[in-house]
Every structure is written in structure tokens, then in C-alpha cells.
Design brief:
Number of strands: 22
Bound molecules: adenosine-5'-diphosphate, magnesium ion
CATH architecture of one domain: 3-Layer(aba) Sandwich
Strand order of the largest sheet: 6-7-4-3-2-5-8
Distance between the termini: 29 Å
CATH topology of one domain: Rossmann fold
Radius of gyration: 32 Å
Shape: globular
CATH superfamily of one domain: P-loop containing nucleotide triphosphate hydrolases
Helix content: 40-55%
Length: 699
């Protein structure tokens, strides 16, 4: 067995108790785990504060001085031990609430100590509770060590005496167990290409760096390695899946596609649209099942891509379905697609939660016998009773969280699984996409149709409301339509609902009948009422649409040119961006007005500024990622695989990219890792105790 798999209980300085503690508190079980338990940060040992010039903060500091006296002070809350600590510039206190006896025995009066810890200020007096301390003479002996590593710890560990110093000692004895070098895990050509230092050096330097420079090199090497093996696993998984799962072969482009493309397409596709149609078409012709994510900013024209792909499915004798997240959106897709396909005489059916039982029966029959080639719907499409004759392609709109379980519902419907395309306008930062969707194929529409005017985004507070309303009247006079959106963060929130109704009433007063007509749509309405109101707005019968975020995704009313978002500080960045995407769809100059109160948190201020500054969904996603962190963006399900030991998916984006490209290249050139150079990869992959999170998510 590999020495590194040895349980920690066999390490010098670790007994059964400590082994248990390390496992419970830090999830460290083997030598290997401890070795890859990297410091959070480092203390520069060359930097000393003098007591006379301490910063008035709770900073962690290092000082040098002597203990002049030790006292025990008994209080109601317990006993504390207080050491007076002095240097030439002043005095302060070192305080212990626990462990008095052994510390008392250790501390020598009038000897010079180097002390490290977090400052505490009370009534103008400085103290350090539970400091780390070391005799200066001993400190000197290890002077070649420039930095002290600081590891993440826990209250319990500290209470049980597993201090930073103890962790450092364990690390030292671990590094000493290996007199020969830790074996290399990356092939030489990668080390050369990216100027990475050997694994052994990196491990030793990351725990006990002797210079800032070597520390940076060590960190870079280990980050690269971490990303590289994550990418290796993801890419391998993708390759394996493709080998395993057979799919329908769409071998031709037929009459429907050609006719539509040549006679009925009212605009020219953008280059990006053409490219993704081609990518996806190729993927559907390989004999493997397609699992692909199509990303494109709001308004980039994903729907037409979906339509063309469905025509390819039909041309090859298959059925296709398009699943939308809301009923409104499903209806809208249904109307626009049936209109566009009318000339080709291709029937399109709609299935949602409010489809009547009778209609359903006819639908089920048509799907079952194949007479209905295209089905549009909500999640009702995924119900077990819905059986297709020959479903070849399932397109999921606006839902990048379309999960594994939902996908498998489509699988059961046929012998071979349909090709699956998930479309999303929620821009996912490239690095996140690379990590979370590293096993999926990705197509990106990175271009908007020509002639779109940039949406002007303004940030206004309640005190500007009259001016905003005056502006709205101007726009309505020009024949435009207006959205006013209220937050409804929780569907059940009475307060949010009240805000919406209050807002509706106040708008009705400012925009009175008969000159103005206002539609309202919110989650507590019956879906037929929603559809009715929505339709009035689409038909231009109402000028203002008051809504909650039900209109967030998908809705397409090109004549609407103003989006007012109320209480904008309560929306997340990606939601704001989605909402803004509802305007700017026609030829007119469009506006997005973010209304907030006077007072805002710093974070919401950044959100507003970002929205005002840029229309680019990817840039917005990057800011969002920085503000909220990867776990919050992708949801807990996926956050597991975003936890890295040393790499940081936000800060180390370029390394991630390099690592992914390297993994792809190696697997392309040497798929079964036969090359002698790649034996280390094979070995490392085999030894990797795969993070179960990764496998749960992917498989
Ligand atoms: P999204 O990607 O947000 O789903 P849509 O598919 O709703 O975007 O398209 C937005 C609008 O742009 C629609 O009105 C659509 O007809 C139009 N559109 C799509 N592609 C093009 C193009 N290549 N040229 C001009 N208009 C286009
Ligand atoms: Mg869309």
C-alpha cells in the first residue's frame, strides 16, 4: 500500500484521540489528507510590532518581549490567567481562560518570547487571548523559515490543545516521514510548458515557505494540479458517457428544414446562430446521445435555433418537444411556433397544467401515434402519462438547473434517450461552466442580432418618481409600452403582494382611464386570467404591464421599450439582467429604470452600478460570482464540486483554463493514457478518492 494512505493515528504526535479529532473537525484521515491540507495564510515572521505602536484593531500580530509577572484572577465567569508582557515601548496582557496549569509550567519569567495572536482591546488596554508563544532562542533556530503557516482550525481543536503550533509540528513530522521525494503527479511536458515546480518542492514550500517567491510558485503548481485533475475526471466522464449511451442518428437535413430556411425565415441568422446550429446538428448525427447546454444572452435568438433543430428532428422521422418553465412562456412559444410552422403544415400542440382532461386525451393519442410531431409545454410534458411515439429531441428552455432526475423522465419514454438541449440565458461565468458543466457539451451564442440598440439603464430613487412617470408618459405618447415589475421573492409573502397592489393602485391614479390601460399579472392569479392580461399587453391594448417576476423569463413583446424595476435592491444581478432583457427587442431605444430607496447596502450599490455600466450578461455574471461566491450561484447541489483545497475558481481563472485545455489535449492525443509520460496521471487518477459529490452530480 502507498505510504500516503496510512491512517493518521500512525503519525508521530498523533494518538487515537487526536486522530479522531482531526477526522471529526477537519475531515483528515490519512497522511495524504494531511499533506494536502494547505495553509489558509501565512504569518510573516520577519515582521514585529512594538507594544507602543500596536494597531487599534483586532489584527493578528507578532511581538517580542518578556513576561514580567503572572496572576490568576477569579471572576464570576471563571478564572483567567494573566501574564504581563513588556518590551521597551510598553506593556500589555496575555490572557488564558483554559489550560492554566500547563501554560504556567511552560512560561518562564523574564525570558524573551516571540508571541503571536489576535489583538483584543478593552478600555484602551491591549491584550492577546490564548497567544501562540515561543522562546526567542528556539524561534531563532528555525529562522530560515520565513513564514508560519496558519491552517484553518476549530474551537474544539483549540480547546483540546491542537494549536497552530501542534498542526505545524504534525506537518513537519509528516514531511520528514518521506525522506525521498513525494512522487510527481504531472507529466514533464506540463511542468515544462507552464514552468511548474516539482510536486515534492511544492508540498514542502507550501507548508513551510522559505521565500515569498517560492511560496507563489508552490501555490501555482498545486492549484494547477487541482484544476487539472478535476478537469481530467470531468472530461473522462464525458467521454465514457458518450461511449456508453447510444443515441438516435439524425443523418440528414430534409425538406422541412430547407423550406423553412429558404422561404419562411424572415431574417438572416447571426454568425453565432449558424455556428451553434451546425455544432448541434453534428452532435446529433454521431450515434451518441447529445447532452448539451446552449447559452445565449437574453435576446440572442435561441428560440429560432430551437425551431430549426426541431425541424431537423422531424426531417429524420422523429418528434420533438420544447419545455418552458412557465405557462406564459409555453403559450408564447406555442403561438409563435405554430404561426411560423403554419405554412409548412406541421402541427404543433400545447400541453400545460391547465390543459383540460379532454384535450389531454386527444393530445396523448396524437403523441402516441406520432401524429403530433411537435409538443410545446411546461413540466406537464414530463408526466409519466405522456408517451411519445418516437421522441428524438427534447429542448428545455431557460432552465439551466434541469436536473438529472428530470432528464431521466424523458428517457423512459423510449428505447433510446432523446437528444437533450438545455437552453439558458442566465449567463454562467465561463469558469463555472467549465467546472460544473465540464462533462456537458457547451454551445454559446455570443452575438446579438444586428440593429439592436443598447438598452439605457438608469438608477433612480423614490424622490425621482414624478420625473420617471413623466418620462413614461412621453414614451407612451410615442406608442411604446412599459413594464413595471415588483419583487415577489417568496410566492407566499403577503407583504410583497401588498407592495404590488399598492403600486398598481398608485399607477392607476397616475395613469388613469380612459387614456391609459394597465395589465396586471402575478402568481396568485388563475392562469387563464394571466394569459388574458398578457395577451392584452401583447396585442397593444394596454400600455403598462404591472407584474411580479413571472415575466422574468422569455416573454417577447418587441414594442415594450421601458422596464421599471421597483425595489431593485431586492433582486439579484442575474434576475435584474433577465428582467432588463424583456425590453430592447424592437428597433426603438429602450430603457431600464432601477428604482431603489435612498439607503442601500454596499453590495446592492455594486449591483446597481454594474447594471448601469454594462449590458453584457457574461460581465454581469462575473460580478455576481464575485459578490455571491460559486456555491450560491449554482445552488447547493453543485457547490460540492466547487470546493477546492487551494485553487480559487474566481481568482485563478486563467489557471483553470490552462488546466482544462491541457486535460482535453492529453485525452485527445492519448485517450487511454498509454504514453510513458502519462503513467503518473493514470496512477494519480486511480488513487484519487473521488469526491462523491462529483459523481452524484454527474452520473
Ligand atoms: P432569447 O435568446 O432570449 O430566447 P429570442 O429567441 O426570444 O431570444 O429572440 C429575441 C428576438 O430576436 C425575437 O423577436 C427573434 O425573432 C429575434 N431574432 C432572433 N434571431 C434574429 C436574427 N438573426 N436577426 C434578427 N432578429 C432575430
Ligand atoms: Mg428565450
Amino acid at each position: 500500500m502507498d505510504v500516503m494512505q496510512t491512517p493518521l493515528v500512525y503519525l508521530k504526535g498523533v494518538g487515537p484521540d487526536r486522530a479522531r479529532l482531526l477526522k471529526e473537525e477537519l475531515q483528515l484521515v490519512t497522511f495524504q489528507d494531511l499533506l494536502h491540507f494547505f495553509p489558509n495564510r501565512y504569518i510573516d515572521r520577519s515582521r514585529f510590532y512594538s507594544i507602543g505602536e500596536l494597531p487599534r484593531t483586532n489584527a493578528e500580530i507578532q511581538i517580542k518581549g518578556k513576561v514580567t509577572s503572572i496572576n490568576f484572577i477569579t471572576q464570576k465567569r471563571g478564572k483567567r490567567m494573566v501574564a504581563q508582557f513588556e518590551d521597551e515601548t510598553g506593556s500589555m496582557e496575555l490572557v488564558w481562560f483554559r489550560g492554566h496549569q500547563w501554560i504556567r509550567e511552560l512560561l518562564k519569567i523574564n525570558e524573551t518570547y516571540v508571541v503571536f495572536g489576535r489583538l483584543n482591546w478593552f478600555k484602551g488596554k491591549a491584550s492577546i487571548p490564548h497567544p501562540e508563544f515561543e522562546l526567542e532562542s528556539i524561534f531563532q533556530q528555525s529562522a530560515k523559515m520565513l513564514f508560519y503557516p496558519i491552517y484553518s482550525s476549530s474551537e474544539k481543536l483549540i480547546n483540546k490543545g491542537v494549536s497552530q503550533k501542534v498542526l505545524q509540528k504534525l506537518m513537519t513530522s509528516l514531511l520528514e516521514t518521506k525522506s525521498n521525494a513525494f512522487s510527481e503527479t504531472l507529466p514533464k511536458h506540463l511542468l515544462d510548458q507552464f514552468k511548474l515546480i516539482p510536486k515534492d518542492d511544492a508540498l514542502r514550500q507550501v507548508h513551510f515557505p522559505i521565500s515569498q517567491h517560492l511560496l507563489s510558485r508552490a501555490q501555482m503548481r498545486l492549484k494547477f494540479e487541482e484544476f487539472f485533475y478535476m478537469q481530467m475526471q470531468l472530461v473522462l466522464k464525458n467521454v465514457q458517457r458518450k461511449q456508453k449511451i447510444k443515441g438516435h442518428v439524425f443523418e440528414k437535413i430534409g425538406i422541412n428544414f430547407h423550406q423553412f430556411f429558404e422561404k419562411h425565415l424572415t431574417f438572416e441568422l447571426t454568425k453565432a446562430q449558424k455556428r451553434v446550429v451546425k455544432e448541434i446538428r453534428m452532435d446529433m448525427g454521431t450515434g451518441r446521445q447529445m447532452n448539451r447546454l446552449l447559452q445565449g444572452d437574453v435576446g440572442s435568438g435561441k428560440t429560432i435555433v430551437a425551431l430549426l433543430l426541431m425541424l431537423i428532428a422531424i426531417d429524420n422521422g422523429f418528434q420533438a418537444c420544447l419545455v418552458a418553465p412557465t405557462e406564459i412562456l409555453a403559450q408564447q412559444h406555442y403561438h409563435s411556433l405554430s404561426e411560423q410552422l403554419e405554412a409548412l403544415q406541421i402541427p404543433v400542440a400545447l400541453l400545460t397544467g391547465s390543459t383540460s382532461k379532454k384535450e389531454r386525451q386527444a393530445l396523448h393519442e396524437g403523441l402516441n401515434n406520432g401524429k403530433i410531431p411537435i409538443l410545446i409545454g411546461t413540466h406537464a410534458v414530463l408526466e409519466d402519462t405522456v408517451q411519445f411515439n418516437k421522441l428524438g429531441l427534447a429542448i428545455i428552455d431557460e432552465q439551466h438547473r434541469f436536473g438529472v432526475a428530470q432528464r431521466s423522465k424523458l428517457w423512459k419514454k423510449n428505447e433510446l434517450p432523446p437528444h437533450i438541449l438545455v437552453m439558458t440565458a442566465t449567463p454562467i461565468p465561463r469558469t463555472l461552466a467549465m467546472s460544473v458543466y465540464g462533462d456537458l457539451d457547451l454551445s454559446v451564442i455570443d452575438e446579438l442580432p444586428p440593429g439592436r440598440k443598447k438598452i439605457k439603464t438608469l438608477h433612480r430613487t423614490d424622490s425621482n418618481r414624478l420625473k420617471v412617470f413623466a418620462f413614461v408618459k412621453e414614451q407612451i405618447a410615442l406608442g411604446r409600452q412599459i413594464y413595471v415589475v415588483y419583487p415577489l421573492i417568496q410566492e407566499s409573502s403577503k407583504l410583497d403582494y401588498k407592495d404590488l397592489m399598492d403600486g398598481y393602485e398608485s399607477l392607476s391614479r397616475s395613469f388613469p382611464l380612459p387614456d391609459y390601460q394597465i395589465s396586471i399579472v402575478h402568481g396568485q392569479m388563475k392562469s387563464e386570467d394571466k394569459a388574458y392580461e398578457m395577451q392584452r399587453f401583447i396585442d397593444g391594448k394596454t400600455q403598462i404591464m404591472v407584474a411580479t417576476t413571472v415575466i422574468e423569463v422569455g416573454v417577447n413583446v418587441p414594442n415594450a421599450s421601458v422596464m421599471i424595476i421597483e425595489s431593485a435592491e431586492r433582486f439579484g444581478l442575474s434576475q435584474l439582467h433577465q428582467l432588463r432583457g424583456r425590453v430592447g427587442r424592437g428597433a426603438d431605444q429602450s430603457y431600464c429604470i432601477l428604482m431603489t430607496g435612498q439607503k442601500r447596502s454596499q453590495e446592492s450599490q455594486i449591483r446597481m452600478e454594474t447594471m448601469v455600466k454594462t449590458n453584457d450578461g457574461f460581465q454581469i455574471a462575473e460580478v455576481d460570482l464575485k459578490l455571491r461566491g460559486p456555491g450560491n450561484i449554482m445552488g447547493t447541489q453543485q457547490s460540492g464540486i466547487l470546493q477546492f483545497k487551494i485553487a480559487d475558481i474566481i481568482k485563478d481563472q486563467s489557471l483553470l483554463k490552462a488546466a482544462r485545455e491541457s486535460a482535453l489535449k492529453i485525452l485527445k492525443e492519448d485517450p487511454s493514457l498509454k504514453h510513458p509520460d502519462h503513467q503518473c496521471i493514470k496512477k494519480t487518477l486511480a488513487a484519487l478518492s473521488f469526491d462523491s459529490n462529483i459523481w452524484n452530480f454527474i452520473s
